[in-house]
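Run log, item B.
One chain of 518 residues. Sequence copied directly from the ordering sheet:
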Amino acid sequence: MIERLISFLLKRRRFPLPMLIYGVEAASVHSAKMIDADSNSDYRVAGFIAPSLDIPHRKIAGKPVYFKDNFYNNIRKFHAVKAILIRPEALSRTEKQQLAEICFPHKIKLMAVSPQKWKRKNILEIKPVHIEDLLCHNPIEMDFETIGANLKGKKILITGAAGSVGSEIVYQLCRFDPDLLLLCDIAETPLHELGLDLKNRFPDARFQTIIADVRNRDKMEHVFSVHRPHYVYHAAAYKHVPMLESHPDEAVLTNVMGSKIVADMAVAYDTECFVMISSDKAVNPSSVMGASKRIAEIYIQALSGRLQKESKVQPLPLRFITTRFGNVLGSSGSVVPLFEKQIRDGGAVTVTDPRMIRYFMTIREACSLVLEAGNLGKGGEIFIFDMGDPVEIKNMAETMIRLSGYKPYEEIDIQYTGLRPGEKLFEELLYDKEICKPTDNRKIRMVTVCEQDIHKVSPLLDQLFEVSRSCNNREVVKIMKQIVPEFKNLDDKRNGLTEPPPVPPKYATQTPAHKDTE
């Protein structure tokens, strides 16, 4: 009782810190009013930052308005300001990064608010900005009406449902009122936790958890024969590049054979749409993981080509669609959680190479575009996502250290450890012979697909699976290279057979439509 009284008195004596709000639109003004109305808030609003000179007012809601350029050029005069509040989804990546670079040296915190997230009693939730907030793009444009019309009342199977991407797809599907969500994963505990979370967040959602291995043909046939899903989102895969370099057999059996089994079941049981989650590592692969995803792409393309030749009706009764994108921020095993842990432990933060760059999207952005691509595809396409400019991993590490309140190289060091097995300095989203075409969504581009002959592909896959079951990894890699001749792994590079190009290709410039202005 005494401890509660002391805590209450301390809160009453606390002086709120001055905060500026970036933006002058209605949502920003509403945020300011809610902060000032909250007697327990750590902050008080000292004014607004106007991004442009278009605003005619010098004051809004009784608070002064400062133009962005004036704030940036005279930031030392704002020494009393302790924080700036932003809405990450309302700003471009460039604006957010510029703001961060200005604020960090002056010990001004960046705070974030989302208009969809509220605490009890209508109190605004404010949280420190994370790296995901700085790197996320503008809100994804989605055709909710058409997607909803296609998915409403349907049975939808999600493989790898308990993973980072799979679970986010599940959450986003809940808004479209499907008849039944079939959550398939081999990982028992994460699948159980996903089910509990769904019951809490979406109490009206109809779903069933299914412990199943996509490599088990009998089990997958049972799932398809009993439920006959209309849609399949195939996210199940092994993804850790260095680990799969030591286990090519497992990469093949899960990423290739598992994909083939699920795709074959989709054909056999009259599925309407099959959406495969691929990776930018499938392009000119330098790793077993990338090569396995490319082989899965080849089979899906070949299977779709066979259906197109055999089908007497248009549109196709089953649409095979492949989505290819880069790294997703915050996914399990990705660089962001690793850096966060290293910073919490006091460093050092480990970066493989100072030249390392990657394309990034948040999980929410990537999965929104997966649903949109499933809506756009007619069958047989590969879609790539516009992920903006590549990000230097070294700069990301420095930013994350600053966001945590430390100085890079002084308080938290950065150490370079060298490229790991199978890693590239950068990833590509296109092969040289592939050409991008715009779609109705400016964030999605369609890739021209080289036609694959399933009668040539299938015998090689049968041979690959047989060798993989025998655990002869050297022979596994050899056959993978027969199927994907451009697959050049670490041994090839050591022998001088290939050299990475010095700079990444500008995939976005291959189509003039919808140039990203971020």
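Observations after the first pass:
- The longest strand covers residues 43-50.
- Confidence is low (pLDDT under 50) at residues 117-121, 494-518.
Flagged for discussion on Thursday.
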